[in-house]
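Thread: quick sanity check before group meeting

JM: Hey all, I'm pulling together slides for Thursday and realized we never actually wrote out the predicted structure for the chain we discussed last week. Dropping the sequence here so it's in one place. If anyone has concerns about the input, flag it before I start.
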Amino acid sequence: MTDHSETALPHGVKLLHDPVRNKGTAFTDAERDMLGLRGLLPPKVCSPAEQEQRVMGNLRAKESDLERYIALISLQDRNETLFYRVACNHIEEIMPLIYTPTVGKACQQFSHIYRRPRGLYISLQDRGRVQDILSHWPHQDPRVIVVTDGERILGLGDLGAAGMGIPIGKLSLYTACAGIHPTQCLPVMLDVGTNNETFLNDPLYLGLERRRERGPAYDELVEELICAVQERFPRALVQLEDFGNRNAFRLLAHYRERVCLFDDDIQGTGAVALAGLLGALRLTGGELRDQRVLFYGAGQAGIGIGNTIVAAMIEQGMVAAEAREKCWFFDSQGLLVAGRDTIPEQKMPFAQDHSVIDDFAAAVRALKPTAILGCAGLPGVFTEEVITSMAQLNERPIVFALSNPTANSECSAEQAYSWSEGRAIFASGSPFAAVPVGNRTLVPGQGNNAYIFPGVGLGTVVSGASRVTDEMFLAAARVLASLVTEEDLAMGRVYPSLSRIREVSALIAAEVATIAHRQGLAREAQPANILDDVRARMFEPVYPHYA
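JM (edit): ok, ran it. Output follows.
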């Protein structure tokens, strides 16, 4: 994809301060003369490879991942092409720094490490002026907008305006993993206050110093934002990110048929977990319809995964009620059973007829699941007793500890493998190192949504899709699962290597675009070869020639 910015090429210091066009020490002698840069840079003309080597050397010399995050964001602020060259060429090393798990720490420290603005901040004080705020964005054609209200950042809870690190990080992955041009990415923080006492008492906190809005003013601000986006950026995809449970499900239901919009925590997580489960079944030899899945956590991620699994089972010929009986949920009140006094609407379809169980290990023994999936953000709940029970019930127990960041994981890869005598099929939300088990080394799979949302977003952009459908996410899960090789499975990994992420995104995008055309949702003409069109339109981090 190309940069559609209409602003003229700046000269001199202004060019060096333009992150989209800046090449730093890579400006050639001819460019330095033509663009008024002579004397503003050291005399040596560096190759992009030399610049990359300098960046990686500096990163690896730093003492903490948070310092590495700050260094990378600073690079992004001054030279986006070099930032994305580094990210694309070292994705397995860089992704954990610009996204989970490091981004969680960065959000917690956001107000203290803040340096330069990125994205748009829209607060309750801006009601009636959202359209004007959108007009302040310097790029005229954003195609992907990631918006959060900061209430449920990863497994860290309410971080208010400090949650802006999440949209920024997600959109970095849209570019690095799927080739959406940086100028077509717009992060938005919807600041409606925070209930985080630490932040409210912090004089450096950058958001509204008030408690979180729960009333009509909240809905009015969201509505104003969606309407303003539709008017000003009618081709943009809106991704809802890290909203609290009370708002995420209802906002998705309210807007998904009106605009091109999805919720990554619900739909993206559902697709990546389904893909991992399909990959695991290649090791166990079973069929999806024969699985019994027990979830620890019934929030956005858990219910989203459950709904996606049910949809996949329905595609395979099961009726909805039968498919839901394969999914069991354990939340803060214990096993989700039909006899509860009050059950939120999104959980109702999964409330089963069963006696109350308030201990997860007991639930494992009673229900005999083939897979357990953790998505409640509570560390250590997959205890030795739980894993041992799973290993007694299953030759190859499926254990997905999906909560982020790493400190919130339900168990570590080493625990899952050691407690199951190396038989567990393990995946996690944040990365874990390879684990020696006997005479082999097992490599944990990372169920990272970055396998899904960039490709889905790219597919909607290249097709001009007016809606994002459940079929697109099911297709994305199938594509991802199909890319797991026998070599991946042999080392215990149920996802492809992150080094293949751009290939994964391109193939998912082509499938999503195909569905958009088939469903009559595409606003762009269908090309002769959709996959070739997708690949041709992906941004590559290569410097332009100015002279």
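AS: nice. The domain at 267-448 is CATH 3.40.50.720 (Rossmann fold). The chain has a mean pLDDT of 96.
JM: adding both to the slides.
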